[in-house]
Amino acid sequence: MALKIENIRKSYGDLKVLDGVSFEVREGEILCIVGESGCGKTTLLKIIAGIEKADSGKISIKDGRIGFVFQDVRLLPWKTVLGNIEFVLGSMGMDKSKAREMVKLVGLEGFEDYYPKHLSGGMQQRVGIARAIAIDPDLLLMDEPFANLDALTKERMQCELLRIIRGKTVIFVTHDIDEAVYLADRVVILSKRPAKVVDIIDIDLPKPRDRVSEKFLEYKRRIYDLL
Q1: Cβ–Cβ < 8 Å for 33, 70
Q2: In 26-103, beta strands by DSSP E
Q3: Measured between alpha carbons, how far is 120 from 102 in angstroms, rounded to an integer?
Q4: CATH architecture observed for domain 1-64+168-227
Q5: Which of 81, 90, 76, 142 is nearest to 111 (CA)?
Q6: Tens-digit pLDDT profile for the chain (227 aa)?
Q7: Listing from the earlier edge strand, what are the strands of the sheet with 30-34?
Q8: How, if at all, do strands 186-190 and 197-202 pair?
Q9: Structural domain boundaries of the chain?
């Protein structure tokens, strides 16, 4: 077990956001958290990352590094692709030479000296992923990283992501049911705000997955009916 979340509650004034959320994350799995927009998915991710504090509850997590990929990529505009990755490595006291290896891993060879403004949305998100995994995180948190991409780019990035993060422990937040079924080993379904866990579903399909197979569509229908 990489992470255990027990009875997490969070409110902002009178607005109750999380209402006793509990689940476990296994070593080496991709766990997707699915729920409607505004149900508290991002808040939960920030609590796991230590960016925010829960009002009550407990999180048990193994010691180690946490990587975070945000929906808005947050690249440093004055640094190149390579420079953005080197900056993160340097801030962690790690060897900056690893940056070129990360550029190759995410398929951006030849774009090392490009600045963010010259990159497409998908390419910028690749840099964001490269920065997060460059520190070799024990846990990778991803907050709807492909939400702002067009449909075709989004599907390509989902496919690439499975290659890039193979073997990593990942919590991936999304409101896209197709994305969750394509990526996840298990899916945690949250209710409307205040969020509770409605169900946890094992996705028993080999990867890469056929999005139009009957079993794939059956999982999508099952999750849709629970939301």
Answers
A1: no
A2: 30-34, 56-61, 66-69
A3: 18
A4: 3-Layer(aba) Sandwich (3.40)
A5: 81
A6: 789 999 999 999 999 999 999 999 999 999 999 998 889 999 999 999 999 999 999 999 888 889 999 888 889 999 999 999 999 999 988 988 899 999 998 989 999 999 999 999 889 999 999 999 999 899 999 999 988 888 888 898 899 899 888 899 999 999 999 999 999 999 999 999 999 999 999 999 999 999 999 999 999 999 999 98
A7: 66-69, 139-143, 170-174, 30-34, 186-190, 197-202
A8: antiparallel
A9: 1-64+168-227
Q: Which two tokens stand for residue 21?
A: 């959320």
Both tokens of 211, joined, read: 């999005």
Given the DSSP bridges, would you call strands 30-34 and 170-174 parallel, antiparallel or unpaired? parallel
Output the pTM of the full model.
0.92
Cis status, amide bond into 116, omega within 30 of 0:
no
- Taking the CB of residue 167, how many other CB atoms lie within 10 A of it? 7
Distance CA 167, CA 149 (A): 25
